[in-house]
Amino acid sequence: MKNLTPDKKNRAVAIWLMVGVFMIIVQIIIGGVTRLTGSGLSITEWAPIMGVLPPLNHDAWLAAFDQYKQYGQFKHLNSGFTLSDFKFIFFWEWFHRLWARSLGFVFIIPFFYFLINKYFSKKMIWPLVLLFILGGLQGLIGWIMVQSGLTNTSISVNHIKLAIHFIAALVLLVYTFWFALKLLVPQNQSYQNPKLKAFLTIILALLTVQLIYGGFMAGLKAARFAPTWPSINGEAIPTNLWAQNWVDHPINVHFVHRGLAYLLTLLIVWGFFKIQNITKNSALTCLKQASRLPLILIFIQVSLGVASVLSSRTHTDGHFGVFETFAAFHQLAGILLLLSLVYQYYLVKAKQYV
Predict the structure, then answer these.
(1) What's the CA gap between 334 and 328, in Å, rounded?
(2) Mean pLDDT of the chain, nearest integer
(3) Helix (H/G/I), strand (E/B), else coil: 232
(4) For 39-59, how does the pLDDT look when each residue is reduced to its tens digit (9 = 90+)?
(5) Does pTM surpass 0.85?
């Protein structure tokens, strides 16, 4: 194995990183399902080692349920829960944490194998160390978020901390994906175009704000405050909009989230035609093909968003139904849209490890 060429070693590292990308996406989706089922506060302690195993007998389950009963979500929302109901929400939070631990092993074991067998160039090692730091930080942010909901009055976590947790996960995802692209994409497919780079930077900046507001939407359960489309409760521009808070008020958050979706759709369509024109008579096949992905995904994303809003009135806490299904796929489409735009951006500003 030590006789492998540098290209084959880079490819092996890239495949490892792309496996990590896939697992991070799954982790984010499991986190979304955990939120949608109201499961995030079911485990009331952070036990990185002992928490691998769920309760193993009836008495242990009763003890975990009693711990949950001490907090506001049970007292004010789920006081009618049976042990069976508790087991359902416990499973999703436990599975979310278990997948995160599995993700850590998938990163750290191959890392030492590649390090010992000299798969990494010197330029790779410290960025990979940063990757581990980001992963650990994400776990800490997640626990801080959970703590925000473990009070006598709260029935859910703080929506701002939820959004921070979500964005931190996306930062980890994009960082890993970008690292893999450096090892996978041929240098001759990069295209230095400052104007196109600036245009894509604007789109990514707007999408980042949109994703933050998606976190606010989720944390505030804002979809249920305006389960109508294309209007917001019969109004194009809700009354009292300017008198209300743009971070905490569900209608304002809803208005921003919808407005940014429409703006991003227009910009991505425009970007598609710009890139098609640039690559019309060139060998930049990667960039030409990459321009199609955001175009497809933005329409899927908006359609799923509309479906989520319209079905939000069917939501029942502690259950997974039509609304929750649409919302989970809406989140997945948003993640894939982000990655497709990052891929586009990389192609106009590429730099490989050597």
Answers:
(1) 10
(2) 89
(3) strand
(4) 988 988 877 665 678 888 999
(5) yes
Q: How many helices (H) and strands (E) does the chain have?
A: 11, 0
Residue written as token pair 């995030």? 40
Alpha-carbon distance of 38 to 109, in angstroms, equals 33
DSSP string covering 276-321: HHHTTTSS-HHHHHHTHHHHHHHHHHHHHHHHHHHHGGG--TT---
Specify whether the CB–CB gap between 29 and 331 falls below 8 A.
yes
Say whether the peptide bond before residue 230 is cis (omega within 30 degrees of 0).
Answer: yes
pLDDT digits (tens, 9 = 90+) for 169-190: 999 999 999 999 988 887 766 7
| Regions in the chain scoring below 50 on pLDDT | 1, 352-354
Cβ atoms of residues 316 and 85 within 8 Å: no
Q: What is the pLDDT of residue 352?
A: 46
Q: Around Cβ 322, how many Cβ atoms within 10 Å? A: 14
Place of tokens 């606010």: 216
pLDDT of residue 139: 86
Q: Are 174 and 339 in contact (CB under 8 A)?
A: yes
User: How far is residue 182's CA from residue 306's CA, in Å, rounded to a whole number?
Assistant: 36
Any bridge partners for residue 232, and if so which? Answer: 235
CB 219 within 8 A of CB 163: yes
Q: Which residue has the tokens 């497709």?
A: 340
Q: At what angle do helices 58-69 and 83-116 cross, to 10 degrees?
A: 100
